[in-house]
Every structure is written in C-alpha cells, then in structure tokens.
C-alpha cells in the first residue's frame, strides 16, 4: 500500500510527457506529420505545408563529406591543431578579460582568483626552457609576419623551420630573435612571397649582419631548398602600393621576362629589378611615376632604379625617345 501513490504519479507524468511529445510531432492545423527541412532550417507539415518552426540551429558540422573515409578525416573534437603555437593549441587558454560568460564584470575576489589561475596556467603550459624558448620565438614570428603582411601559410612554414632548428640543437650561440627572423625570411622565399632584407631588418630586433649569417647557417644545416628570389614576385605588391594599372603591371612582367631571356637577371638585386620594371612600365603606359616614389615603396635608391631601368630598356626592340 505504501508504494502505490508514487507509481500513480509516475504514470501521470509519463502520460503528460507523451502527450507533449505527440503535440510537437503533429501539425497544429491539420494534424499531419511534421518534416525537418535541414536546407532551410525549418520544420514544416508534410500535408498542408505549414511552417511550424523556422531559423533552427543546425547542430551538424560545418563541413561536408561524401564517403566514410572523408568523414573520418574531417571529423574532429575541438579546434584544429596549429604549428604556430608552442603547444599546438591543445592546452587551455584563459582570456585576459575579467568578465563572465554573460559579459558582466567580475568581483575583486573573482579577479584575484582568475589571475592566480592564469599564472598557474602559464606555468603548466611552459614547463621547461625549451617550451619557453619556442613560445617566445613563435610569438616573434607572428609579430613580424603581421607587420609585413605575410599570409598564414608563411607563418606556419616559418614555425616548422624554427621547430626543426630547435630539435636539431642549432640555437646555442645564436639569439632566439635571429633564428626566428631567419626562419621567417626563408619561409617567405619558399612560399613565393618574399620580403627584402631591409624590410625584415625594420621589423626585427636583430641587425642585418646577424640576420644574413643566421639565415645562411639555417639553410645549410637544415638543407632547405630555397630558390633565388624572383623579381616578378615583388611586382604585384609594388604595383598595388603605387596604384598603377593592370596594364602597367603586365608590362612590367613582360620586361622582366625579356630581361631573363637576355641573361640580365643573374647577379642583380630582385628588388631593384622589380622597382625598375614598374618604373619603366609606368612610362611605357603613360602613367606618371617618379623614381623617388618607386624608390620609397621598394626601399631602393634612385640610382639603382636608373641603372636597372636603362638595362631593361636595352632588351626592348625600340626604346622611347
């Protein structure tokens, strides 16, 4: 007799839940069955077409897979790993904002607690000198790449090069900033998005002599395949900064191609050749550009532009009067 009342209440609750579930699965207008339209994020009636719910949240993945193998490759939990962080992004990162999940400011006691958690979190993330070294270097690479406007693939490659140098014990006797700058310079050249030594020196914390010495050492020890810089790789950036037309940019590429066929590229600075090609192309397409303007963008002297300019025009069948 004592167990009967709870059993009755349980049956009543189950009946109520069943009725609520039944109400949500049928159309409130005609009583027809409901169908989920995942493409439009709606729940509609299959009989009368009434839209019962709209703007539904899709709980599925943001990617598409067409077979089981591709589904297994794309499936993941959490954020993807990255070589640009010393722990590959697998550890917890506590934000610096002293706010809760609703955007409200934390109390003084909660702020002190969060500060202690951040301190211990940083200690656990960098447990030894090698991880601290890597964290500092990757932060330096990201800073310089942002200042130079380099894409993410160049940063990833630079991070891999620095990791290899650290694993091969190439850092003793060299500064972290020097190896990081050399890694970024090598990665930019490998990706076909080079930057000049002058540009690297401006954003780096090392001088040009240390940069070039470290770069040669890293290339030799890691056996990296880095092709000589192509002047054409500098043309789009210079053309964009100077605001020249597509016709002038196309003419500059043609001038460099003709100079390469004539054997004038070898032994010349690619930056100076690219700047001279832009200047020559602007004159050939009746666009007003001065040597000073081109030199400021390319960071080369006007004398270099004049010398390379005359050499490029010598490859033309006809020179302008």
UniProtKB/TrEMBL annotation:
TFIIB-type domain location: 23-53
Sequence repeat feature ranges: 139-222, 233-314
Keyword Amino-acid biosynthesis part of the UniProt annotation: no
Key words of the record: Metal-binding, Repeat, Transcription, Transcription regulation, Zinc, Zinc-finger
Gene3D superfamilies found in the cross-reference section: 1.10.472.170, Cyclin-like
Organism superkingdom: Archaea
GO biological-process terms attached to the record: DNA-templated transcription initiation
Residues the record lists as binding Zn(2+): 27, 30, 45, 48
SUPFAM superfamilies associated with the record: Cyclin-like, Zinc beta-ribbon
Gene Ontology MF term list: DNA-binding transcription factor activity; zinc ion binding
Sequence segments annotated as region (Disordered): 1-32
HAMAP family, sorted: TF2B_arch
Family the UniProt entry places it in: Belongs to the TFIIB family.
Role noted for this protein: Stabilizes TBP binding to an archaeal box-A promoter. Also responsible for recruiting RNA polymerase II to the pre-initiation complex (DNA-TBP-TFIIB).
Protein name: Transcription initiation factor IIB
């Amino acid at each position: 007799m004592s167990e009967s009342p709870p059993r009755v209440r349980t049956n009543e609750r189950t009946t109520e839940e069943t009725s609520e579930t039944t109400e949500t699965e049928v159309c409130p207008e005609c009583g027809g069955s409901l169908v989920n339209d995942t493409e439009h994020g709606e729940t509609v009636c299959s009989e009368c077409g009434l839209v019962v719910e709209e703007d539904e949240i899709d709980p599925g993945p943001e990617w598409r897979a067409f077979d089981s193998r591709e589904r297994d490759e794309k499936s993941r939990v959490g954020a993807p790993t990255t070589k640009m962080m010393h722990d590959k992004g697998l550890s917890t990162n506590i934000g610096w904002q002293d706010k809760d999940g609703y955007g409200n400011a934390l109390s003084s006691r909660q702020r002190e607690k969060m500060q202690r958690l951040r301190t211990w979190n940083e200690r656990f993330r960098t447990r030894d000198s090698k991880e601290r070294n890597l964290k500092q270097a990757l932060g330096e690479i990201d800073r310089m790449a942002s200042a130079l406007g380099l894409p993410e693939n160049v940063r990833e490659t630079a991070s891999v090069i620095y990791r290899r140098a650290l694993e091969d014990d190439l850092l003793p006797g060299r500064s972290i900033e020097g190896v990081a700058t050399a890694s970024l310079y090598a990665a930019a050249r490998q990706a076909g998005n080079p930057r000049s030594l002058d540009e690297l020196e401006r954003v780096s914390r090392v001088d040009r002599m240390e940069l070039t010495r470290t770069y040669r050492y890293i290339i030799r020890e890691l056996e990296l395949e880095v092709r000589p810089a192509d002047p054409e790789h500098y043309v789009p950036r210079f053309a964009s900064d100077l605001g020249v037309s597509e016709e002038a940019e196309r003419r500059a590429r043609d001038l460099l191609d003709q100079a390469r066929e004539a054997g004038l590229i070898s032994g010349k600075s690619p930056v100076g050749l690219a700047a001279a090609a832009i200047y020559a192309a602007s004159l050939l397409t009746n666009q007003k550009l001065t040597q000073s303007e081109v030199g400021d963008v390319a960071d080369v002297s006007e004398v270099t532009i004049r010398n390379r300019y005359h050499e490029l025009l010598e490859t033309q069948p006809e020179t302008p009067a």
